[in-house]
Design goal:
alpha+beta, 9 strands, 8 helices
Length: 288
């Protein structure tokens, strides 16, 4: 997978913080166990999924979500309209076991939550609200480029909700996840259609392999720079996910598509009870 070509787009808000956004969709103690709206009720628009956290509209905390931003409210209204058109007096709204975890809301690109343990299910769900918080994410520090505080606040609430609803639920143990970042500069004459094809098929390979909890890529900036990132259940999942023929084709095309690519790996550690979180350098064998 590689950073995608696209028009620069970045949502801004002068009045709402990332923390307010997270609180606006958090569950309360009175709500029922979490279910997913069917992915077909959610937009397939790349920009809505990348920059406005539209995938979070799958999370069914209550009959209607309360989005924090005007853009999210519009997306929620569209999802509600689609749901209303689907539902009948005798048929409930369709649910799903497959989660949107990338800008691709299409069959073959979705995460089957049934293949994961509780912790990975909950982290994947919390990551549906991931979105950039600054326009220069292509070059800015990774930890300062996304609404991480909101993501982990939502994860903390999801863990509490699951523990409350299931008597055998255990608290969140301290654990780590494998993170990959790709910083790139595209060549001015890079073939956008070919890049999209390589990226989409590579993502399908990774999803079929298993363990990819989140894939995000931005839009190239004025200097053709971009950022893409993957959050994996484990390093081994990432290794297996990159073995397919489309990944091989993507690596082979890198020289003709990019002026430069900077690849890095990080360890995301989430503390016991989601009491804290941090990104650090990935060192093989440490914490595994």
């Amino acid at each position: 997978m590689a950073p995608q070509i696209g028009k620069p787009l970045y949502p801004t808000s002068d009045t709402e913080s990332a923390e307010e956004e997270a609180r606006a969709i958090l569950p309360t103690k009175t709500q029922t166990p979490l279910q997913l709206n069917h992915h077909s009720l959610i937009t397939t628009d790349f920009d809505a999924l990348r920059f406005h956290a539209a995938a979070a509209l799958q999370l069914r905390f209550s009959p209607a979500l309360k989005p924090a931003t005007a853009a999210a409210a519009a997306a929620a209204a569209a999802a509600a309209a689609a749901a209303a058109a689907t539902a009948t007096a005798t048929a409930p709204l369709p649910t799903d076991t497959h989660l949107i975890v990338s800008p691709y809301n299409l069959p073959g690109h979705l995460l089957d939550l049934r293949t994961l343990d509780r912790a990975n299910q909950l982290l994947a769900q919390a990551l549906t609200i991931l979105q950039p918080t600054r326009p220069d994410y292509a070059t800015a520090p990774y930890t300062e480029s996304f609404n991480w505080a909101s993501v982990f606040e939502l994860l903390r609430q999801l863990v509490a909700l699951q523990s409350q609803d299931e008597e055998d639920a255990t608290s969140w143990p301290a654990q780590s996840f494998y993170v990959v970042t790709f910083r790139s500069r595209l060549r001015a004459d890079a073939d956008g259609e070919r890049l999209h094809l390589l990226d989409a098929h590579s993502h399908q390979e990774a999803m079929a392999s298993g363990g990819l909890l989140k894939y995000w890529f931005g839009s190239k900036d004025a200097e053709h720079r971009n950022l893409a990132t993957c959050i994996w259940r484990s390093r081994e999942d990432a290794r297996l996910g990159g073995l397919g023929p489309w990944h091989k084709k993507a690596r082979g095309a890198a020289r003709e598509m990019y002026e430069s690519i900077e690849f890095s790996t990080l360890r995301l550690t989430v503390g016991e009870g989601v009491g804290g979180w941090e990104f650090g350098e990935w060192v093989d064998g440490k914490g595994e």
